[in-house]
Task: structure prediction
Amino acid sequence: MEEQIAEQKEEFSNDLVRFSANRKADCIIEFDVHASTSLIEKEHKQAVKAVAKQVSLPGFRKGRAPEELIVKKFPKDVDQKWQQLIADAAFKECIKISKYPILQGSNKVSFTMKQHDLKKGAHLTLQFETEPVIPSVDPKLIEIKEITRPEVNKEKVDETIRQVQLFFAEWAPVEGRPVKEGDFVLLDVDVVETQAPEKVFENTRFEVSDKYMAKWMQDLVLGQKQGSSLEGISKPDDTLSEKEKEEFAPKKTRVTIKKIETATVPDLNEDFAKKLGVASVEDLFTNIEKMLHKQADAHVTEKLRDQVSDELLKKFHFDLPKTLVQKETEFRLKQLYQDPDFEDHWKRIPNTERRNMVESIYLHAEKAVRMFYLCRKIISEAKISVSPKDLPKRPTTPLEALLQPQSFLQPQPENEPHQAEAFSKLILEKAQDYIISKASSPSETTVA
Result:
């Protein structure tokens, strides 16, 4: 629910201006200003000089015509420039006195001139966006629930070894026969319940087996040839828990077989281990087990961080400048539009669907901006240091590059935009972890 911001009014004055400052919704500050005759007289002279430099009069060089003649011949130009200069000078004085922080990166100030007269002074309103006022966060108001830690056992280690072998497998195309059990297939999978198909997987490899492919998908592809496009309804497997079955939403799906392959995996020996950057097969198993534990810990951390974000957004409301959210929305749309598939999809969907998509992106952008400000406030008040040494280190072996948790693989800040992105993520994570450590009922994680 959007927070209703009550207008707040303050009074200020000096020898040049007398004004009230009203804080409005969306971080808008409005100054209702009365400017002195001395201020507007000075700006009137500047306006006449500025216009004189731009216009020509017979018998005079540019900028040399008498002021009275410039005012007489170009009254509208002089008045327009005068109003702008009054607004600029008044705004400068108001900011100097009130010390309201102007929104960083924004220089847009609008004004409405109500009256301006050399003998009476000027009356005008000025509007601009200010920095949001962020509430202090009490970690004890945050409640986080218990997270189940994924189990790490021999079966998972063995399966991970197999997946690593498959990564280095030699792939041979299958020609002249349909798909059979044990094959690998490259599939495009689309949900086709709406006019515009929703891409779920593209050119993604699946192993045709009970363990690695859902039964409904197996039933579709078994016995079919490369290039076949098949439609069916996704269904939960019998092996799923009752809760998982309840949460599963069947969808009308199109599966396209792009390629059929078989795999020849490398032998599990010391040469293979060394290729992955470890000394022996024994070390390979040991390292993989350690990395799986790291993945399990990362899973718990990410789930706890998600809870913290939800709680912060729910319990700590504040007003945001629309400009910030709009810029973030435009940035996200631009990133999406760089994908040719998205661009093609965007061109084909109706205007109502476009509006819905933009609204959804806007809501996600707003949450991201709110989280940035809240986490920056938490970092500042808790005096948490954030430095380049806190950024995740690059993988040192091929095995680490394959298995390190995604949260550890954020891009290194090699240029200014990447640096800003990396540090924003670091601020977010450090603030979330601080809240987790101080929350009123921090969860004790359990093993599945």
The longest strand covers residues 252-264.
